[in-house]
Amino acid sequence: MPAAVTASGARAPTRELILDAVERLIAAKGVNGFTLRDVAEPLNVRVPAIYKHFRSRDDVLIEVSRRFITLLAAQFQPAPGADPVRALRRTLDNFVEFQLNHSAYVRLALVDFATPSGGMEFVKLAAGGSFRDNFSAGPLAAMHLRLRRLLRAGARSGQIRRVDATDFYRVVTAALLIRLVFPDDAQLLHRPPPAQARAIKRWLWGIASRYLALPQSARARAHGRQR
Fold it and tell me: Could you tell me the domains of the chain?
C-alpha cells in the first residue's frame, strides 16, 4: 500500500494515515459509527490492507487512544517564571485548544467514562491502567503533578484558595467536555471560528476562577496586606 503525500510534500507512513482517517471518522460519526471499510475507501485501499498494520478495529481505536494519551500527558505545562495564576489560565487555554483540535478525543473520553467494565475502554487500555492509577503512575502522572504544582503555587501566592488538584481537574474537564457536546456537538464537527474559541476559553476560565476564588475574609486580608 503506497504512502500518501502530505501537505508538506513528505510521504506519510501508512499506519499514521490510517489513524488520521480514524480520528476524522470518530469526530464525524462517533466511536461506534464507522467501519474499517469507511477507513479504507478514502485511502484508496482495501480493508485487508489495514490488517497489515492493526489486528482489529478495536486495535485501531486503542492506537488512536494512545495518541490521545500522549498529547494529554503534555498538558498543563506553565511558562517558566510566569505568575502562577496567569500560567494556570494559559494552560487552561491550551487545554481548550487541545480538545478543539482533536475532537475525536472528546468522543473517546466520553465513551470510556460510559463503559466501566461493560465494554472496550480504549483510553484506559491505552493509558495502561485506570484514571485513578494515572494520578501517581503511568503516562499521565507527570501531567497531574504539573497541575498540582501550579495550583499550590497559586495558593502560596495568595491569589487562589487551596484546592485538591483532582477535584479541580474533574471540574474543568467535565465542564469542557459537556460544553463541546451539549446541547449539540457542532463544535466537534467543525473547528469553531477564532471568536468562538476565545469565548469557550473565557467561559472555562470563568468556571475555574470562581471555583478557585478565595473566601471573602481571605480576600480582605490579602487586600489589607497589599495596601
Answer: 1-54 (1.10.10.60), 65-215 (1.10.357)
